[in-house]
Amino acid sequence: MRTRVATVVIVMVPSKRRLTLERAPRLILKAMADCCCPGPDHTDQAVGCRVCRTAGKPVDSLTVKALLSDAALARYEHAAYRFCPDATCAVVYFAESGPTFTTADVRERVWQKESPGDRTICYCFGENEADIAREIERTGQSAAVQRVRAHIAAKRCACEIRNPGGACCLGDLLAAVERLHQSRMSRS
Ligand SMILES: [Zn+2]
């Protein structure tokens, strides 16, 4: 008999106000309903990062191969890779067996591993914290989520090969807009 493992969607926000399925179910579920990508296709038991032990999120091997530098790709071995979202850990991709790849091996800057302020959250359409903050400053709000939703509806995203996390950015973007909005409010 197969045991179903419940998937809890955790949107990584580097603050104590983390949006989780439990804390903000409506927001997250609404965001994920528009998601352009199917969920991970395997839900085997959690495998921890080989350096920091954080539970990794399964990523498609195509994502790993697309995001690795030429030199890193040359030592790629086929395995069930996972993405380490921990901000303090340099590992980006790891597998139970096989090589480990760090931020130095990846073509893109991985926003989860960078300091807040100027990070690109949406790798397909370039939505980033600096522009969103300016937009909020200027107009009191940001339409970044609506812009990305429109692109998703038009089938323009390629998260599997553009986003190092290999998944739709919408949940992350929603959390980023919310965080930047709160930070603007707390300053006024
Ligand atoms: Zn790690």
- Runs with pLDDT <50, length 5+? 5-16
- Helix and strand pattern: HEHHEEEHHHH
| Helix residue percentage | 25-40%
Q: Radius of gyration from the CA trace?
A: 17 Å
Count of all domains: 1
Q: State the major sheet.
A: 4 strands, antiparallel
Average pLDDT figure:
85
Strand order of the largest sheet: 1-2-3-4
Summing up helix and strand content along with how strands pair, one would put the structural category as mainly alpha
Bound molecules: zinc ion
The total of helices stands at: 7
Strand segment tally: 4
Concise synopsis of the structure shown:
This protein is mostly helical and 188 residues long. Helix content is 34%, strand content 5%.
Draw up the topology in text.
Layout: H1 25-33, E1 57-58, H2 61-67, H3 70-73, E2 82-83, E3 91-94, E4 101-102, H4 129-139, H5 144-153, H6 159-162, H7 170-187
Antiparallel strand pairs: 1-2, 2-3, 3-4
Helix pairs in contact: 4-7, 5-7
Bound molecules: zinc ion (ZN).
